[in-house]
Design a protein that fits this description.
Structural class: alpha+beta
Largest sheet: 6 strands, antiparallel
Number of helices: 11
Order of helices and strands: HHHHEEHHEEEHHHEEEHH
Oligomer: single chain
Distance between the termini: 8 Å
Number of strands: 8
Shape: elongated
Strand order of the largest sheet: 5-4-3-8-7-6
Length: 267
């Protein structure tokens, strides 16, 4: 992905600049960047000892910095003591205006969906422990749903948020769930719901606040299968649709349109 390449390029430029000096001006920063660069190339988690070997350093030289990066959410630690990169750096790159490649790439798909269905669609990302709306294309209808850009919401309580949570590695999901302070009943429900999303490939549900308002979201994945974002349409069920119980039919048509629009978009 472009953002991963950008990250590596920026790290290497900084390191090269530091090496051009006789003595590094920021040895701790350089060490942290080297750790990130090293782990970005690894297909499997590395223990401190393995990481030290890869970097040609002693464990004592990198242990403190690894702890800092882990504590700040840039690294994930497995139960076996291995470390690998979290998605935090990637999410930061997506939020930085000059590098919103994903939003630019998805705009044609979003417009195609709206043109075909006349329903609004919005793009959401996970930011730390919150779901954030970063882009939307509104329906041309007189009555339509519009969301506030930049609005942060609890991912557990939204269709978009649950699709994003369902795409997280188990360790990252556990971190978010621990911070959410869900009771046992809600936690059980959520885990079951996330498993269902993973199996069927989308999430759909009527609003728990407004009657007749439905959300349908599908994940936006990288070529490697990682969930990067979610495209969600929020639609209003007319009295005719509700009276004839045709919500499933409308939902199926919208799902097909979303999937078709996304397939035509090269991520």
């Amino acid at each position: 992905m472009a953002c991963t390449t950008l990250l590596k390029l920026n790290i290497k430029i900084i390191i090269k600049s530091n090496k051009s000096n006789e003595k590094s001006q920021a040895p701790a920063l350089e060490k942290g960047l080297l750790i990130l660069e090293c782990l970005s190339d690894q297909p499997e988690p590395l223990t401190l000892s393995q990481l030290a070997v890869k970097m040609e350093r002693n464990v004592s030289e990198i242990q403190r910095m690894v702890n800092v990066l882990h504590g700040s959410g840039y690294l994930i630690r497995s139960a076996q003591g291995g470390y690998w990169l979290s998605s935090k750096l990637y999410r930061m790159a997506l939020r930085y205006p000059p590098y919103r490649d994903l939003e630019v790439l998805l705009r044609p798909a979003m417009y195609a969906f709206v043109d075909y269905t006349q329903e609004s669609v919005h793009l959401c990302l996970l930011q730390e422990t919150e779901m954030v709306v970063v882009a939307q294309v509104e329906s041309p209808k007189i009555a339509r749903i519009s969301l506030q850009l930049g609005q942060a919401q609890d991912p557990v309580e939204t269709v978009s948020g649950r699709v994003l949570l369902a795409g997280l590695p188990e360790q990252e999901l556990d971190i978010i769930l621990k911070k959410s302070a869900l009771n046992a009943k809600k936690l059980t429900w959520l885990k079951q719901r996330l498993a269902e999303i993973q199996e069927r490939g989308y999430e759909s549900m009527e609003s728990n606040v407004y009657s007749g308002v439905y959300d349908l979201g599908i994940p936006v994945k990288s070529a490697q299968g990682n969930v990067l974002a979610v495209l969600t349409t929020t639609w209003l069920a007319t009295k005719e649709v509700q009276a004839s119980n045709r919500q499933p039919t409308v939902e199926k048509a919208l799902l097909t349109a979303l999937q078709s629009a996304l397939e035509d978009c090269q991520i």
